[in-house]
Amino acid sequence: MTDPTIFDLGAALRAGETSALELTQAALARASDNAPLHAFADLFEKTAISQAITTDAALAMGQDLGPLMGIPIGIKDMIDIAGRPTRAASRVPASPALTDAACVARLRTAGAIILGATQTYEFATVGPDESLAQPPARNPWNPDRITGGSSSGSAVAVAAGIVRVALGTDTGGSIRSPSAYCGVVGLKPTKGRVPNDGVLPLSPSLDHTGPIAATVAEAALVLDTLSNPGRKAASGSLTAGAAGLRIGYPRHWIADDPATDPAVLKALDDAASALSLAGASIRLVTLPDYDMFETAGALILDAEAFGCHRDRIREHAAHYGVPALRSLLRGMGLNRDDIANAWEAAQILGARLDETLSQVDLLLTATTLAPAPPVAAFRGGRAVWTAMRTLPFNLSGHPALSLPCGLTDGLPIGMQLIAAKGAEDILCRAGHAFEDATDHSLQRPARALP
Amino acid sequence: MTTLEKILTDLGIRPDPDEKARVLQGAKEDQDAARKLAAWLARQR
Q: Which of A255, A323, A327, A389 is 20 to 30 Å apart from A309, CA to CA?
């Protein structure tokens, strides 16, 4: 039996078969049952229950705010929640936020219940770091494997079935890689579609806020709630199927990289076949070398991250975890010419993506080139390279969707679809069609840890 | 003192020698990557 979706829960709520209070209490109970997964940095039991009671009263009076009303949601601890310090998993002192981040305010307006702050890698940098004040989130598929990050707790909360959706942030893959490693759906929107006001910056040029969800339809629903006005609805053509979609498959980005796990390449080939059988036309396309995308993106990210944290480091260096501080200092020696060059490269590479996406509707690639690596590899502050295919689309601003496309040795594999800017409707349509054509999104880990 | 070491000093950071070597190595890797990117750009122009 599959878990009820937000749409199922909403129908039950409106039929009087459940209440926002019951949904919230059940989510809190699941969070408690799964406490060893450390998905949440903070649970807001009192305020969530109080909000649920108010929601039930409003529904009883006929006030319906739409499909997210009464639905518990997790918020990554990089995103301001009024009255609470946004700690970002750090010991660096933080003051309580004066207001909700814009995305949280939009969720509240839609009636969502803010259940808690989900765990993150420190300041959305690197991890897992077991030396921080709170333990890192653990992968429900296998707690000895990393969750990916930095939106680790959001992906875990969804994968473990605590919530159907949680917010994440994504600067180089931080929504999509934990979604891939934890077997859930992650949607990085087009740059500028969702406001970042009230979100701790890491690299403002590359930062994106978006949903991690159990299904593409639920991710699309939340994205539409978060989006600035005037954007085409991500859920606008969800059920139109894959027929007629033209999908470019830059297979060389995966097949030519020695870091690729053969199971990931096979899963991607199988995904291309499944989309073809569902009516899409698949063609191999050639993109510029991945290395240059990553190099340009990493330079911009590192330079901006150092700029964002320089003053804080000067004041609180001793409070940072070693891996985060080491990561934030990478960009300290870059100069203005280096950054100008990186942006010039970004323009060239982004134009090539735009050109390819003028000939196809979507691109298909992997999210990560291997399943989640062992936690042990990261112990002692060791830096471990996890090969991904995510950063180019932070650099270019194209929307990108990660969704499950198989398992290997009991660990999830994630595929990634990319669309033209503003075309989240096509992205979600293809993702939904893929879910319909396969059973990958129905796979769930065993819940609570022993 | 190198430029990178001076930045660390200006930030008030005094890591132990091993950690300092790791931090400087990371920053140097970024500078090397910037040079590689500049060479690639020169070929594109």
A: A389
Q: Quick check: A161 and A170 in contact, CB under 8 A?
A: no
Residue of A341, A385, A391 best to disrupt the B interface, most CBs of B under 10 A: A341
ipTM above 0.90, yes or no: yes
> DSSP assignment of A197-234, as one string?
TTB--S-TTT-EEEEEESSHHHHHHHHHHHSPTTPPPT
Interface contacts A/B by beta carbons within 8 Å = 73
Residue B45 contacts by C-beta under 8 Å, 6 or more apart in sequence?
none
Copy the structure tokens of residue A13.
């709520």
CB contact under 8 A, B34 and A302: no
CA gap A12, A233 in Å, rounded: 25
Asked if residues A69 and A19 have their Cβ atoms less than 8 Å apart, the reply is no
Residue appearing with tokens 């300041």: A123
For A36-49, what is the mean pLDDT? 98
| A172-189 confidence digits (pLDDT tens) | 999 999 999 999 999 999
Q: Is the dihedral of CA A110, A153, A49, A185 positive or negative?
A: positive
Q: Structure pTM?
A: 0.97
